[in-house]
Amino acid sequence: MTLLDPTAAEAVHYATDPRIRHLAEAAWRMRTGGSRTDWLKLGKNNPEALIAEAREWMRAAVAGGLLPAPSSDPAWKADAHQAADADPDTEEPRCGKCRTPFDPTDTRYDGAARYAATPYCGRCIDACHESTDAFHRCVICQ
Q1: Which of 60, 61, 72, 87 could disulfide-pair with 67, CB 3.0 to 4.6 Å?
Q2: What are the b/e assignments for 86-100, b being 16+ CB within 10 Å?
Q3: Is the pLDDT at 89 greater than 60, yes or no?
Q4: Are 110 and 120 contacting, i.e. CB atoms less than 8 angstroms apart?
């Protein structure tokens, strides 16, 4: 067995490693046969989403030397986000709620560009935050 490097694994966290969400989605879709849309409807805090388990799998792979540790390099993060957000049918990153392709040139607050590092467009974030329904629940606010 390979020697483990637990210090490398400490850097693996939801905020630093987009591969976690991608791994969790792949495992969930294999278990359930669900679609990407079904996955996104679960919301990130749903226990069925396997996010916590995926973090541990990713930490084990990094500690065992199977995968490189996450990098603070912006290019590495951009590539990891792009891989995690790509729609397998189109290979084009899309909003996790409305499925509209991201348009980086539409930077209005309610535009089609990605909102910060989220998997959602500005339009969906704006609509979610504008909701006045006390029982409003969607993939963004869950």
Answers
A1: 61
A2: eeeeeeebbbbbeee
A3: no
A4: no
Contact 11, 70 (CB under 8 A): yes
Distance, CA of 92 to CA of 85 (rounded, Å): 8
At 45, the pLDDT band (50, 70, 90 cuts) reads low
The angle formed by the CA atoms of residues 12, 98 and 139, to the nearest 5 degrees, is 50
CA quadruple 53, 141, 138, 81: dihedral sign: negative
Q: For residue 17, what is the DSSP state?
A: -
The candidate with the shortest Cα–Cα distance to 16, out of 49, 66, 58, is 58
55 Cβ neighbours under 8 A, 6+ residues apart: 12, 13, 14, 20
pLDDT given at position 110: 87
* Dist CA 52 CA 40 (whole Å): 16
- Using a cut of 0.90, tell me whether the model's pTM lies above it: no
CA distance 140 to 44: 9
Which 3 state secondary structure label does DSSP give 113? coil
